[in-house]
Each structure stands twice: as structure tokens, then as C-alpha cells.
Write a structure and sequence with these properties.
Blueprint: E1 14-19, E2 36-39, H1 46-52, E3 60-65, E4 68-69, E5 81-86, E6 108-111, H2 116-125, E7 129-131, H3 137-146, E8 149-153, H4 156-159, E9 167-169, H5 175-185, E10 206-208, H6 219-224, E11 228-230, E12 237-238, H7 242-259
Helix pairs in contact: 2-5, 5-7
The structure holds zinc ion.
Length: 280
């Protein structure tokens, strides 16, 4: 019988990793929601290990390294344990523990060119959602960094850009489910301010007197509506048009589902009006 010291097995350096919440979406099914080991190369860092696991750094907010908050560049040794948590929006873990310096609160977004409908839905919800049909990946990264916006994209390669500090890979396929996903993920239900932003250019709407916009609204709307808002940027005028009821219902439904229970009361702002221009 061999003893260990007679014929030692080659030791393989490994680290035990456990990912939490939606970070598991990036893992193979057998690795989700359970600790598993990763082989450890020389000079392995926290960021390197997350990359080797296929988890975008931009979705990670907190890493506990043997129980202590870690930084991206911290070195990891064989036998260490890492617990990896996603960007927290729903509860405060204390800014000193975070992987990055600034916690994300009341997030603003920038969306890639394929998520135009989601951008409009987010604006309808009252969220600050930057979007342009011509944005390049480089521009999106720059906007995200300079304006501290969460980059939303379905493009994993883009989300994994290591320069990004705030990014989230949208999982859902259709726009309504995408909205629900983002509202849940970033805990937006409590801060929804429906119909306060221009759906077209993201600018905050301001109330405007009917007399001031008579030349921009159809006669039948002049007869039916008395409350209007306008976008000072693109000059569009909004009122409670025929689309309004449908949009209110959509928002109420998303809020209800996002909150998981009961009926979510929808309280549109006093100045919350839709729809723009074509009321038919
Ligand atoms: Zn506008």
C-alpha cells in the first residue's frame, strides 16, 4: 500500500466559487446555485477568475474572498473561497463593501441599438433611458462610463467589455418581459413615474397650457382634452390619447407582477399625459 509521501498525487490548485442570484444565468446548469471549483493559474486574480467562469464583471457588485470583501485585482490562492454577488439595487450592503466605489441607485440606462422598444417602455415608465439608433459599441461604453448609466444589451460580448462598471445582459425575448425583467432587477417599481418623460427623446415633460399648443393638436383633441405636456427638446405635445388607457394597463400589470403580490395601485402623476401627435 502506497503512502501519500511515497507517491504524492500532483496537487491541482483550485478555488471554490459560489455565484448568487442571476449571475447563475451565465453558468452551465450543473454549476448553478452551488459551490464548485475552478482551476487556478499563476497570479490568478478575482477579475481573472470571474472571467474564466464566463461571468461579466460588469454584473458583479460584491465578491467575498474567504469572507472578506475583495477587489478585482486581489490575488487568489489555492483553497480560497469566493462568493460572488450581482449588482445590488434592492438593498443596501454598505458602500465600503462594494466592488466599485459608487453604489448604483435610481439607475439611469443606456440601451444598445437592438433595444429601442425597451427604451420606449422604460421612458413610459419614467426611467431615464438613453437610446440612439446609430450608437456604436464604443459610444455605448463611453456613455455608460461618462454618464454612469447601466448599459442594457443582449450582446454578451458587449456586456463583458471589462471597461464597463455598470451593465446588465437582458435575458427576456419580448419587450414587455424585458421591461418586467429590468423593473424587477433594478427594483424600479417603487420609483415609477409613468408618463413623465418624452418617449422619443427621453427629456422630462413639462405641463403646458392648452392655448399654447392649439396649433399642434388636432381639433378633436382640442374638444376632448384639457391637460397637456410638452417636450422642450423635440417640441412634441402629449395628452391622454387612445393609447393612454392601454399603456396605463400595461404599466399597472408590470408593477403588479414586479411586486409579486396584490394589486399595485397606479397613480399617474397629475401631469401625466399621453399620447403624442397622432390620436387615433
Ligand atoms: Zn422629446
Amino acid at each position: 500500500m502506497l503512502r501519500d509521501c511515497d507517491n504524492p498525487l500532483p496537487s491541482v490548485a483550485t478555488v471554490t466559487v459560489r455565484f448568487y442570484a442571476e449571475l447563475n444565468d451565465h453558468l452551465a446548469p450543473e454549476l448553478r446555485f452551488t459551490p464548485f471549483t475552478l482551476p487556478l493559474g499563476e497570479d490568478a486574480t478575482v477579475a481573472g477568475l470571474l472571467g474564466s467562469a464566463g461571468v461579466p464583471l460588469s454584473e458583479v457588485d460584491l465578491v467575498l474572498h474567504n469572507g472578506e470583501p475583495a477587489r478585482c485585482e486581489d490575488h487568489v490562492a489555492s483553497g480560497d473561497r469566493l462568493s460572488v454577488y450581482p449588482v445590488f439595487e434592492t438593498f443596501d450592503i454598505g458602500s465600503t463593501q462594494r466592488l466599485r466605489s459608487r453604489p448604483l441607485r435610481a439607475p439611469a440606462f443606456v440601451l444598445d441599438v437592438h433595444l429601442g422598444k425597451l427604451a420606449a417602455f422604460l421612458r413610459m415608465f419614467g426611467c431615464d433611458a438613453s437610446y440612439a439608433t446609430s450608437s456604436t459599441d464604443e459610444q455605448l461604453v463611453r456613455i455608460s462610463l461618462e454618464e454612469r448609466r447601466v448599459l442594457l444589451s443582449k450582446d454578451r460580448a458587449l456586456i463583458q467589455d471589462t471597461r464597463l462598471e455598470r451593465a446588465y445582459a437582458v435575458r427576456a425575448g419580448n419587450t414587455r418581459e424585458q421591461l418586467l425583467e429590468v423593473v424587477r432587477r433594478f427594483d424600479l417599481a417603487g420609483s415609477a413615474k409613468p408618463f413623465t418623460r418624452c418617449l422619443h427623446c427621453n427629456t422630462l415633460l413639462v405641463p403646458v397650457a392648452k392655448e399654447a399648443v392649439l396649433d399642434r393638436i388636432p381639433p378633436r383633441v382640442q374638444e376632448r382634452c384639457d391637460q397637456f405636456t410638452t417636450c422642450v427638446e423635440c417640441q412634441r405635445v402629449f395628452w391622454k390619447g387612445t393609447h393612454y388607457t392601454r399603456m396605463v394597463a400595461c404599466i399597472a400589470e408590470v408593477l403588479r407582477e414586479a411586486r409579486h403580490a396584490g394589486v399595485a395601485p397606479l397613480e399617474p402623476c397629475p401631469q401625466s399625459h399621453l399620447h403624442k401627435g397622432n390620436d387615433h
